[in-house]
Amino acid sequence: MTNDVTILIYTFPPKGCESEPFKKIVASIEQTWKYCGKLKTVIVASHRFPDAEGFVSRHSNVELQIEPSLVYGNIKTMSLDCIKNLYKRFATPYVLIIQDDGYPVREGLEDFVGKADFWGAPIISDGWKRNLAYAIGMGSFNGGFSLRSRRLCEYASKMWFSFFSKFMKEECRHLGEDFYYTTLLKFLPTTWLKFRFPGEKEAFRFSVDRLGGLVTPPKDVDPFGVHGKMPKVTVLAYHFWGKDGYDDAFAAVRHAFEETWRNCGKLKSVLVVNETAPCVERFAVENPNVEVQVEPSLVPGKIFTMSADMNG
């Protein structure tokens, strides 16, 4: 069933400064592949640049689409493309939109495919207005990490050109694509007849976006994914081992990183080693969010050398 899904991500970095932003894009894509399989993947970019083209050349399941209307620093340009053209960008029945701050954290995509036409984290602040909105089915859901049907994407585009564009200006500050898809479209009776949206509790199972503390998810929720700015935290681990058993010992360190990423997201990570090795170099290549630092003062078997480095 998950083969019915295309992964899609937008990127519109400033020209000449694409490498660092694209590392985060790659990390999100690889995180998604880890939990959903290496599905057909589309990168929609504002322009061509070497990092994107190199990544596409290494992965046969990835397609690069260029959309010149995307403007660095103007998220509205992405919203408008989602409203007008999203359905044209994939051919499968569903699309999973990810971002550098929105991705799955566990397996389970198949639990949502075919169950509704739009899945995303609830994004109305806590309070009576929130309770009322979701109670009457008018609650908004986040689009940055979302699963939507192609039928809904086609409908969204059609309704924009035939109806909403007649009285809404594209520069309207309220015209966020997720608000358009999950709230504005619901003012049309045909939306209720043709499409399904999840309830608030169901949506929390798909994803959580805390909106900087304004949204409190249920305590027992185990979301499939997350969206939102991650804390400014760096994951750090030391690995200083003798040549004998270096690789075997590193396997445990690698597992610790992967478990941390699974539960916290693929945060910036630093690996401090006494010396590098092929297994470490492969790990860094496979995970662009990892920086390897070599510290020769670390002595295998002498943990106080690590303590000295931490205190220095």
Looking at this protein, list some descriptive labels.
three-stranded mixed beta sheet; 16% strand; elongated; 12 strands; six-stranded mixed beta sheet; 312 residues; alpha/beta; Spore Coat Polysaccharide Biosynthesis Protein SpsA, Chain A
Describe the protein's architecture and organization.
The protein is an alpha/beta fold. It has 2 domains: 2-227, Spore Coat Polysaccharide Biosynthesis Protein SpsA, Chain A, CATH 3.90.550.10; 235-311, no CATH class. The protein is built from 11 helices and 12 strands. The chain has helices spanning 19-36, 50-58, 75-85, 128-135, 150-162, 177-182, 189-194, 200-206, 246-264, 278-286, 304-311, and strands at 5-11, 41-45, 62-66, 94-98, 102-104, 118-119, 146-149, 207-208, 225-227, 235-239, 269-273, 290-294. Strands 3-2-1-4-7-6 form a 6-stranded mixed sheet. Helix 2 (50-58) links the parallel strand 2 and strand 3 (62-66). Helix 3 (75-85) packs across helix 5. The longest helix has 19 residues, at 246-264. The N and C termini lie far apart (53 Å). 35% of the residues are buried. The model has no long low-confidence stretch (mean pLDDT 91).
